[in-house]
Design goal:
about 220 residues; mainly alpha; 10 helices; globular; disordered C terminus
């Protein structure tokens, strides 16, 4: 996939993605310390407070996965420091497992009722499934399928970023009702990311440029 777009586009997109993941992860770890304390004017704090330990588990695991997602996507790390790639991959999978299971529990108490809860519940299931399938392919030695499924997993991890962008635009810029925006975010954040990921995975691959020596030998 790294050969499909110009290098400048890949670097700038990767930098933006890394900064957004770091920002949301920082928010998650900060929120972790006061998530169980309801705050007036914030319906999420009040709703999350009844879920107990699911909240810190979800924010810790999700924050960890967000921090490690850009590292896992790095071709340079995968080629040059494979041991670091495997180590961070194990930590990433652990973060997804913790956050995904906690997310399933949190979906039962989602703000907005059943419609929102189903959206978050399906996200958690898809997140756990794609990560598990990706790890299974890695253990089987099928690295091509492993990378494709982990791209899907990271797309779902990044739904935490997309969710906050939707909330920011819908609530902050457009001043739409909270319930409508939150319902849209519960479904759109991960469905949009997964759709974009699938389009990229199916993008026609351009053949790698042939070295000059091979090209000349083929002409003779």
């Amino acid at each position: 996939m790294s050969y499909w777009f110009p290098k400048a586009v890949r670097w700038s997109t990767g930098l933006i993605f890394t900064l957004l993941c770091a920002a949301v992860a920082t928010y998650a770890f900060t929120f972790l310390f006061d998530a169980l304390k309801p705050q007036s004017g914030n319906p999420l704090h009040a709703q999350f407070a009844i879920s107990g330990l699911d909240v810190p588990a979800h924010f810790f695991g999700g924050g960890l996965a967000l921090l490690l997602a850009p590292l896992q996507m790095s071709d340079w790390v995968r080629r040059r420091i494979p041991r670091l790639h495997r180590l961070s991959g194990g930590l990433y999978a652990g973060g997804v497992l913790i956050a995904g299971l906690a997310g399933l529990s949190l979906a039962r108490h989602a703000q907005g009722g059943a419609a929102t809860g189903v959206g978050f519940g399906l996200l958690a299931l898809a997140w756990l499934a794609t990560t598990g399938i990706g790890i299974g392919h890695a253990l089987a030695g099928d690295l091509i399928r492993h990378r494709r499924w982990m791209w899907r997993s990271i797309a779902l991890t990044a739904s935490a970023v997309t969710l906050r962008l939707i909330l920011g635009v819908g609530l902050g810029a457009l001043h739409l009702p909270f319930a409508q925006v939150y319902l849209l975010a519960a479904w759109g954040s991960w469905m949009f990311n997964l759709t974009v990921c699938e389009l990229l995975l199916r993008w026609p691959r351009q053949p790698a440029p042939m070295p000059a020596a091979k090209a000349l030998s083929g002409v003779r």
